[in-house]
UniProtKB/TrEMBL annotation:
It comes from the Bacteria. Homodimer. Part of the 2-oxoglutarate dehydrogenase (OGDH) complex composed of E1 (2-oxoglutarate dehydrogenase), E2 (dihydrolipoamide succinyltransferase) and E3 (dihydrolipoamide dehydrogenase); the complex contains multiple copies of the three enzymatic components (E1, E2 and E3). Pfam families: 2-oxogl_dehyd_N (PF16078), E1_dh (PF00676), OxoGdeHyase_C (PF16870), Transket_pyr (PF02779). Its EC number is 1.2.4.2. This is 2-oxoglutarate dehydrogenase E1 component. Keywords: Glycolysis, Oxidoreductase, Thiamine pyrophosphate. E1 component of the 2-oxoglutarate dehydrogenase (OGDH) complex which catalyzes the decarboxylation of 2-oxoglutarate, the first step in the conversion of 2-oxoglutarate to succinyl-CoA and CO(2).
């Protein structure tokens, strides 16, 4: 090519000028591993001119390192010998190191049963790289390999590589983009060749954990034969792993740890890690229970808390209560940890640790896992990383074939989406388990990211102890029956090493068995529990009628209103937002009545002014899906933000509002976990549209509605669910009010449908100020946010009382009333306007603002005015089989005068929540309003 043409091509090429450093970095990566660069770059590099006599170029970084080494050499004699930088095999050696880092885990000895069929990995073989055993005595430069010095004999290097990456630990971390994180992991693994050097004390601690794990299962199996216990047998290493994790956590400054796990091994962990008294567990097996705990739950769903002594101080442990719904407890744990971190004023996550324990089929199969991983680094939900342990017994209930349980090589591949390092480890090598446990926690603490330990084990029995597993896994269970238990394998190892004698080991086992017989705590680290968590005592024993003070003087409301309607002059708000804030100033001054957004904001202002912390999350919560809240003002010039509610006064409560990830299930579960760990804050979750809550139905079913009955867990979480029929179709109309009412019993939660700004103000304040913590489900409005009739005065807000029922507001003589219409929500205003239009004075409209617990006394007080009326109607927008009609009509029948009749006015029953055509919607809406207001003679 002509020099001028070449110059012109270079100047226009991506290989020239400012891109040179970037291209050089890519080329260095290409020399390490050709697959590590995009295909288009591989093609570029393969087309580069070859240097005669050189198969693969030497990396510049290696050349620089060699010159640096030579510079320190006093003799400075330059010899390019075999194995040196000029030797073509040198590059092959570095590629061999890289191959083990990338793919060594595929040849690791991970399966205790030896039934994994792993494909041959040619990249890990010498001849693939043009090397052989003839080169074993030749020294090569090993770059960053951390097993020794800069130069190693190939034989020693190859042995070290196989020990590090193909032993009992299979490390996956080369998918991480951060060089710092990869180098850190390489140093920790390669420096010890994945073989820890534990002292005698640590080895004995590990053995005691295995003896305990095996001992409790054998004890329960003999004492309660046939009873379900979902044993840990085969995965016994989980117990010493967790104890090592807590010890390490305490030494690193952690003050609290929250554990979430399903039923497999839960009883074992309760007794042998958290220190639950065996006698209490035996009583549960025997059917004894505390009559004060509501409906209760099975023993392998129950939680527990205790204090665990470590050399670094006491660690408060909490095992989360959770149902069988597999992975749903994980975001609950994260929320609980976030609440503890906020209480400890620790943003880094260094004072509280989340630990989640998964099944191999569940972590790959449940979408909640992906949602929780996705949340892990976001502002609203980060907790400084979590330690995730997979008890990989290679069977999902009865399914063991990999191509039936997942579409990935490993069950843990989902963790790669957030670049978590993954340690696969053979559970029959408890020292390797302890090593990866230490590395995992240290990585989490150093880099504030999730880390995964895949504990590859087996399940000695069926899914439960009554199952016959050989019916579906005959070959696996032939091996399991012959396979020694982990305790015996490690005990034999310690005897051979001279750490303990067989007599000493037998005494350890006998001592543990005696501890079980005595029914006392068998975990020596457990100490008397202190109050690490928040104090719930003042919220226990209260009911709905507990007195509380909510009155705020009008002048104080005006003062707070001015503050929430203000932002710095230099902060340029968008024009529509500016109009909203200008209107709020007028509302604060008493010049305009308050709309929904202003009343809601004032409720928050009064609470933070009094020191209450507020946390609100949802997919559009900062602005509000329907453009009503605008708690966050965005500067139109530099995109900076200003939150007036964070500037009420100096020592105010925190106000946090987050636009969340696009998730319902995991986010709501996170907020549930937060609310169960922090009773003094107002914690709220807002659905983008109310019907989106159906994506989180498991959280409502398994936690919010039944957590207090099953586990005695109080929770004051508030859920804001936009609801109302505006002609927007089936998926943007109904928050499925009927589903929440179906879940209501035992005074387990509140279901409210406020219809005025004053009502939402009082309802939110009541939820915070009243010393009662139960979930609040709110059907919030859409069109009512700006409805001209849905307004309130400052005086109405100042009263501070939420009215469970609202009687007729127009000047209608009760004696003339022939029909009473009950309703809730937006339809009230349509009924009101139509009645006024027709000038009807014989129909009264009564609003039910709280559908559960049903306000029988307030209803009775109102109905007394209409005791002569025989015609009562329930009017709703929802189809007849939905809404409140089926779930609440028994309350209406109970309330109306004897001999009176109750009829229904609303849409016909429907499989769909709403129609999809505006014209049909309008016709149906007009018909139901007319039906409610037409008295048939």
């Amino acid at each position: 090519m002509h020099d001028g043409v070449m110059k012109a091509w270079l100047e226009s090429s991506h290989l020239y000028g400012g891109n040179v450093a970037y291209v050089e970095e890519l080329y260095e990566a290409y020399l390490d591993d050709v697959t590590s660069v995009p295909e288009e770059w591989r093609e570029v590099f393969e087309q580069l001119p070859k240097v005669e006599g050189v198969d693969v170029e030497t990396k510049h970084s290696q050349v620089r390192a060699e010159f640096a080494k030579l510079a320190k050499n006093k003799h400075r004699e330059v010899v390019v010998a075999e194995g040196g930088q000029g030797d073509p095999k040198q590059i092959k050696v570095l590629q061999l190191i890289n191959a083990f880092r990338f793919r060594g885990h595929q040849n690791a000895n991970l399966d205790p049963l030896g039934i994994w069929k792993r494909e041959r990995v040619r990249d890990l073989e010498l001849d693939f790289h043009g090397l052989s055993e003839d080169d074993f005595d030749t020294e090569f430069y090993v770059g960053s390999f951390a097993a020794g010095g800069e130069m190693m004999k190939l034989g020693d290097l190859y042995k070290a590589l196989k020990a590090t990456y193909c032993g009992s630990i299979g490390a996956e971390y080369m998918h991480i983009t951060s060089t710092e994180e990869k180098r850190w992991l390489q140093q920790r693994l390669e420096s010890v060749q994945a073989r820890p050097q534990f002292d005698s004390k640590t080895k004995q601690r590990i053995l005691k954990g295995l003896i305990a794990a095996d001992g409790i299962e054998k004890y329960l199996g003999s004492k309660f034969p046939g009873a379900k216990r979902f044993s840990l047998e085969g995965g016994d290493a989980l117990v010493p792993m967790l104890k090592e994790l807590i010890h390490r956590a305490g030494e690193s400054g952690q003050q609290e740890a929250v554990i979430g796990m399903a039923h497999r091994g839960r009883l074992n962990v309760l007794v042998n890690v958290l220190g639950k008294n065996p006698s209490a567990l035996f009583d549960e097996f025997a059917g004894k229970h505390d009559d004060t705990l509501g409906s209760g739950d099975v023993k392998y769903h129950m939680g527990y808390s205790s204090d665990f002594a470590t050399e670094g101080g006491s660690v408060h442990m909490a095992l989360a209560f959770n149902p069988s719904h597999l992975e749903i407890v994980n975001p609950v744990v994260m929320g609980s940890v976030r609440a503890r971190l906020d209480r400890l004023e620790c943003e880094s996550g260094s004072k509280a640790l989340p630990i989640t324990i998964h099944g191999d089929s569940a972590i790959a199969g449940q979408g909640c896992v992906q949602e929780t991983f996705n949340m892990s680094q976001t502002n609203a939900f980060k907790v400084g990383g979590s330690v995730r342990i997979v008890v990989n017994n290679q069977v999902g209930f009865t399914t063991s074939k990999q191509d039936d349980t997942r579409s990935t090589d490993y069950c843990t591949d989902i963790a790669k989406m957030v670049q978590s390092p993954i340690f696969h480890v053979n559970s029959d090598d408890p020292e390797a388990v302890a090593l990866v446990t230490q590395i995992a926690l240290d990585f989490r603490n150093q880099f504030k990211r999730d880390v995964v330990i895949d504990l590859v084990c087996y399940r000695r029995h069926g899914h439960n102890e009554a199952d016959e597993p050989s019916a579906t896994q005959p070959l696996m269970y032939k091996k399991i029956k012959k396979h020694p238990v982990p305790r015996q394998i490690y005990a034999d190892q310690l005897v051979s090493e001279g750490v303990l004698s067989e007599k000493e080991i037998k005494k350890l086992a006998d001592d543990y068995r005696n501890g079980l017989d005595e029914g006392n705590c068998v975990v020596e680290e457990i100490e008397p529990e202190t109050k690490h968590s928040s104090d719930w005592s003042k919220f226990v024993g209260h009911d709905w009628d507990t007195e509380y003070e909510t009155h705020i003087p009008v002048e104080k409301l005006k003062e707070l209103g001015e503050k929430v309607a203000s932002y710095p002059e230099e902060h340029k708000a968008q024009s529509r937002v500016k109009k909203i804030y200008d209107d709020r100033k007028a509302m604060a001054a008493g010049e305009k009545k308050l709309d929904w957004g202003m009343a809601e904001t004032l409720a928050y202002a009064t609470m933070v002014e009094q020191g209450t912390d507020i946390r609100l999350t949802g997919q559009d919560s900062g602005r509000g899906t329907f453009f009503h809240r605008h708690a966050v003002v965005h500067n139109q010039e530099d995109a900076s933000t200003y939150l007036p509610l964070q500037h009420i006064k100096e020592d105010q409560g925190k106000f946090e509002v987050y636009d969340s990830v696009l998730s319902e299930e995991a986010v709501l579960a996170f907020e549930y976990g937060y609310a169960t760990a922090e009773p003094t804050s107002l914690v709220m979750w807002e659905a983008q549209f109310g019907d989106f809550a159906n994506g989180a139905q498991v959280v409502f079913d398994q936690f919010l509605s039944s957590g207090e009955q099953k586990w005695g867990r109080l929770c004051g979480l508030t859920c804001l669910l936009p609801h109302g029929y505006e002609g927007q179709g089936p998926e943007h109309s109904s928050a499925r009010l009927e589903r929440f009412l179906q879940l209501c019993a035992d005074h387990n939660m509140q279901v409210c449908v406020p219809s005025t700004p004053a009502q939402v103000y009082a309802m939110l304040r009541r939820q915070s100020v009243r010393p009662l913590r139960r979930p609040l489900i709110v059907m919030t409005p859409k069109s009512l946010l700006r409805h001209p009739l849905a307004v309130s005065t400052l005086e109405e807000l100042s009263e501070g009382v939420f009215h469970n029922m609202i009687d007729e507001i127009d000047d209608i003589d009760a004696k003339n009333v022939e029909r009473v219409v009950f309703c809730s929500g937006k339809v009230y205003y349509e009924l009101l306007q139509e009645r006024r239009k027709q000038e009807l004075d014989n129909i009264a409209i009564v609003r039910v603002e709280q559908l559960y617990p049903f306000p029988h006394q307030e209803m009775a007080d109102i109905i007394e005015r209409y005791s002569h009326v025989k015609d009562f109607v329930w009017c709703q927008e929802e189809p007849q089989n939905q809404g409140a009609w089926y779930c609440s009509q028994h309350h209406f029948w109970q309330a109306i005068p004897q001999g009176a009749n109750l009829t229904y006015a609303g849409r016909n029953a429907s499989a769909s929540p709403a129609c999809g055509y505006m014209s049909v919607h309008t016709k149906e809406q007009q018909a139901l309003v007319a039906d409610a207001l037409t008295i048939k003679k």
